[in-house]
Structures are given as C-alpha cells and as structure tokens.
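To close the section, here is one more complete example, presented without commentary so you can practise reading it yourself. The ligand is calcium ion.
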Amino acid sequence: MSKKHILIIEDEPAIADNILLALTQEAFESYWAKTLQEAWDFLKKHQTHLILLDVGLPDGDGFSFCQKLRQHLETPVLFLTARSSEVDRVVGLEIGGDDYVTKPFSPRELVARVKAILRRSQEKPQKNSSTNHPTSLKLGPFILEESKRLCTYFDKSLSLSAHEFNLLKVFLKAPGRVFDREQLLSKAWTHPESVLDRTVDAHIKSLRAKLKEIAPQEEAILTHRGVGYAMRENW
Ligand code: CA
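Output:
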C-alpha cells in the first residue's frame, strides 16, 4: 500500500515538529504548512489523505478554512484544538471536521486518531466527481446540478456548505420521503460515525434559513415530529 500523505497546518514549530516526528515514525508522509496560504498552495498541487488543522493561525482561523475546504474537497480533517470552546464548535455546526484532539495531546493519541480516520475513509468508496455522471435534479423551484455542486431555488443560487448541499440532494432525490437523522447522516456525511445526531438538526436549521431568505413564505423541508424530515412533495 502506498504511503498516506498528511498535511499539518500549525504555526507553532514545537508542536508541528512533534507531530512530524510521530507520523514519520509510523511511516506516514507528512508535510508542514505554517499558514493557511501555504496549506492552500500545497493542497492545490498534492494529493493529501488527511489534514491536521490548528484553529488559530497567523492568516486566519481553522474553522473558516475547513468550511471553505469542504466546498472543494472531502479530505478528512482532524482539528488540533486548544480550548473547550473550540471543541464545541468542532462538534457543532457547519464546519465539516472529522475529529479533534485537544492540546496538549500525546503523539500516541494523535497517531491513533489519524489511523482511525484513515481506516474509515478507506472503507468508504471515494466520491470522485470525475466519475460521477453529471445529473441535475429538478423539483418545483429547485434545480440542483450535482456535478457542479450548484443549486438554485426560485432562480437564485444557494450558497451551501458541503453538508447542506448533500442534505438537499438527498431530499430532492426522494420528495415526500421522511428520513430520520441516522439515514440523513449516513447519506450526507462522509464519516457519519464521528458526527453527533444533533449535527443533522443544526444543518437542517441552517439550510432552512437559507431557503427562507429567498422565499420566506415557503416551507420546503417539513418536520415530522419524532421521526425526521422530508422535502415537500407538491409545489
Ligand atoms: Ca496556533
């Protein structure tokens, strides 16, 4: 099996050195970026299997970076967090991280997490957009173009996070069908086992807010109490 490539985005050299050492000992190919800009430049050019992402970086924060990343790539992200308030955000909304470790962490703990994430991402069939058939889904005011990851609603384009887009796609493929949280997690998340159930609710809430912004009077995603959610069938 070829070596796994891991990108470390961390501005503290001492922490980065420790991680590099631990990963090299485990025969991973690791790279270090001190800034988000360096990281982008690297990711554009190199195939990367996992990203270790610090939260506070000189040219921005890891959360925004991860959100931006998720619009282009599904590379798993392990957050290196410093405070419990950061942990709350990682497990909370929109960010799309796969796991986290809290500083200070032991190299052994980190390596264990890295291996677990890589194992999971290997078990998943890789979603490769180039092998997908270009499809567009239409329902009422929605037009979703899967290959371009674009969706319009009443002719206005929606700016969606990767998970919001995936959720909407699941709904639009089966209008009227009620999905419970577990089903939505398994269909819309790459690593559902590392996500909390309430994450689904949070994403539905933000997705609804974006739809309401365009058409305040329309109820597109219906709640079935105690069961789950469904896309409105009749438009
Ligand atoms: Ca930092």
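Once you have examined the tokens, check your reading against these statements. Residues 197-214 form the longest helix (18 residues). Helices lie at 13-25, 36-45, 62-70, 84-91, 107-123, 162-173, 181-188, 197-214.
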